[in-house]
Amino acid sequence: MSIKRVQTTPFDGQKPGTSGLRKKVKVFIQPNYLQNFVQSTFNALPADQVKGARLVVSGDGRYYSKEAIQIIIKMAAGNGVKSVWVGTNGLLSTPAVSAVVRERVGADGSKASGAFILTASHNPGGPNEDFGIKYNMGNGGPAPESITNKIYENTTQIKEYLTVDLPEVDITKPGVTSFEVEGGTFTVDVFDSASDYVKLLESIFDFESIRKLLSSPKFTFCFDALHGVGGAYAKRIFVEELGAKEDSLLNCVPKEDFGGGHPDPNLTYAKELVARMGLGKSDTQDPPEFGAAADGDADRNMILGKRFFVTPSDSVAIIAANAVEAIPYFSSGLKGVARSMPTSAALDVVAKHLNLKFFEVPTGWKFFGNLMDAGLCSICGEESFGTGSDHIREKDGIWAVLAWLSILAYKNKDNIGGDKLVTVEDIVRKHWSTYGRHYYTRYDYENVDAGKAKELMASLVNLQSSIPEVNKIVKGICSDVANVAGGDEFEYKDPVDGSISSHQGIRYLFEDGSRLVFRLSGTGSEGATIRLYIEQYEKDPSKISRESSEALAPLVEVALKLSKMQEFTGRSAPTVIT
């Protein structure tokens, strides 16, 4: 079969964000739209990572994935790729892709040089919803800015793409399909989506201790995949490997449209799990002891106890504080810990207490990957429900669930048959009493007019030129709030490669350790999303059990009025509060 050169012209706006290129399906299905981006990616990569190489192509199974996989297979053949690995039915979670790239070895002894991941993560799916594509490198992590910038540059100049008219490949069951293509043999290897990932998790956690916990009649468990790709792993891991009851799984059949829901594991969108855990509007009789959810591509997670929500910022801090004792993989100690800038400083306090290296990085998992590749970081997390470790180079929702189950198993190891188990809430409250509590909330204003969003951010930057003036405004809004000590636009110099990332969010830092952070998010597919982060640190043990909304109310008022949020956005309330 011969290689075809197909003429094309550029499309505007194919600039990948922190998590690849995300647009509405109707944009992606335009003739040559996906092809242009894929060819621009091949052209941005070093030649030895394309010609004669092996690539992974899979994703979260959202609408248009099956068609996209066939297009990429044909283009891979056209660009001289030797072999493509595809998860059964095209399904691989984002963390599983990272595991496959890092761990899986082909029959000839070679590994994959990279991966196309088809996902728009926690965004909705379906014909009128979102699709996405991103490229991960040979370390299993997202492409660095040097590559994504080159991809974008290529999309603005592209004139042709390469492909081969292969027949459709059956990706519904494992097997190898070979084709003779100009230049040699090209193979497509469809493999079991779960095996490599499960094997890796078994090497990290003590499955036997988790099995004992799950077998206790006093411990009840619930996992909600929100009809995302996490469902492809839930039965295998939680039921078959760990012995959980099958009825403990919610929404674990992957669907192209996520069952019509929004596959974002938070208190707003994981409605069924939230209700089952006793956190809904009507009280639930005897909720499970532990509940968790994952997003569309299973890299994010939400952790819940009985009638109790664990903030993502607290979650990563608690995992770090307990990892060495509770998780065999970390038994020899942690190399360091890291968080994204908007995430609360709960992890900072743990790092200081345990004398660990600590890093504050911009939003985007690739920054953690650099630290991990350099051996500087073991555990990391971000407030947007992402938690992970150096076992792969992506955040990992099911890893976080297993980390929490490991901590619960460790805390109850001498008490499995006792009258009362140590609960999620017990662990969190003990953590607060040891390290203090970081009251924290995030307001998301989604699909805001992009021009107005930029005006709001520019206004906040201008205000920082006079901190005394800012304090005058703040005191006029609420006299009880501490003075603003300073403000900046967060900039990060990577300690590994020296690269500088500027304009990563606007910070107002208060004298008592409180913070206001404003950031434009690149994870939506239309308009702009303004994220507002509000944090207050409380060390006084008599004040760590207040309602979060009550503790944060003065700072919330200051943030909304200081930013003129309603004036700029026309919104009287955020789309989502977490």
What key phrases describe this protein's structure?
578 residues; alpha/beta; 7-stranded mixed sheet; 18 helices; 26 strands; globular
Question: Could you explain the architecture of this structure?
Answer:
With 578 residues, the chain is an alpha/beta fold. Helix content is 33%, strand content 23%. The protein contains 18 helices and 26 strands. The strands form six sheets. A seven-stranded mixed β-sheet has the order 2-6-5-3-4-9-8, with helices on both faces. Helix 3 links the parallel strand 3 and strand 4 (83-87). Helix 2 (33-44) crosses helix 5 (145-155), helix 10 (312-326) packs across helix 13 and helix 16 packs across helix 17 (548-563). The mean pLDDT is 94.
Q: What kind of sheet is the major sheet?
A: 7 strands, mixed
Secondary structure class reads: alpha/beta
Terminus-to-terminus distance: 53 Å
| Rg over CA atoms | 24 Å
Beta-strand level of the residues, as a percent range?
15-25%
Q: Percentage of helical residues? A: 25-40%
Overall mean pLDDT stands at 94
The shape, in one word, is globular
Q: What is the number of E strands? A: 26
- Which residue ranges are poorly predicted, with pLDDT under 50 across at least 5 consecutive positions? none
The side-by-side strand order for the widest beta sheet comes to 2-6-5-3-4-9-8
> How many separate helices?
18
